[in-house]
Design a protein that fits this description.
two-stranded antiparallel sheet, globular
Length: about 160
């Protein structure tokens, strides 16, 4: 006789160590991807006056910038991970939408910080666009990190079959 029951089984996903590694290592290449690929796609498909996009060159730029981004985004990424893990230790569920929003806000703050700290928090009027661009990219990266963390931290309901 077969008994079909619903069981809650955790999805294979992030252990705490994997989640921290994701939060520390993913922001640099994600930030470069958020900044490089949309402009390349825009030039390739929507600008008639733009020169033809060399996708090999775009890929090379991505790889070079991703390595360089670790120098710029390394410390903000570690701070991001520490703050997120602190929030999780205080009871915030990694699979909650609040965690995703917090990740987006911390990402925006990290993006702005990468520009503001080296300039001594003095941003000339002509540079405010750069600050906005890095803040927006940081927010996008934080949201991506938060959504993936939420998705990989979820439990799913599976139908189990037991024999008796």
């Amino acid at each position: 006789m077969h008994d079909d029951t619903l069981t809650k089984t955790p999805r294979r996903g992030f252990s705490r160590k994997k989640r921290i590694a994701w939060q520390v290592l993913a922001p640099a290449p994600l930030g470069v991807a958020v900044m490089v690929f949309p402009s390349a796609f825009w030039n390739a498909f929507f600008r008639a006056d733009a020169p033809q996009v060399d996708w090999l060159q775009v890929g090379l730029v991505f790889v070079i910038y991703a390595f360089a981004a670790y120098i710029i985004a390394g410390i903000p990424s570690v701070i991001f991970a520490v703050l997120m893990e602190w929030a999780f230790a205080l009871g915030l569920a990694p699979n909650s939408w609040v965690a995703v929003v917090l990740a987006g806000a911390l990402g925006a703050l990290a993006g702005v910080t990468m520009i503001a700290v080296p300039s001594g928090f003095v941003i000339p009027a002509g540079q405010i666009g750069i600050v906005a661009m890095f803040g927006t990219a940081g927010c996008c990266v934080g949201l991506i990190i938060g959504v993936v963390t939420k998705w990989k931290s979820r439990s799913v309901t599976l139908r189990a079959t037991a024999s008796s």
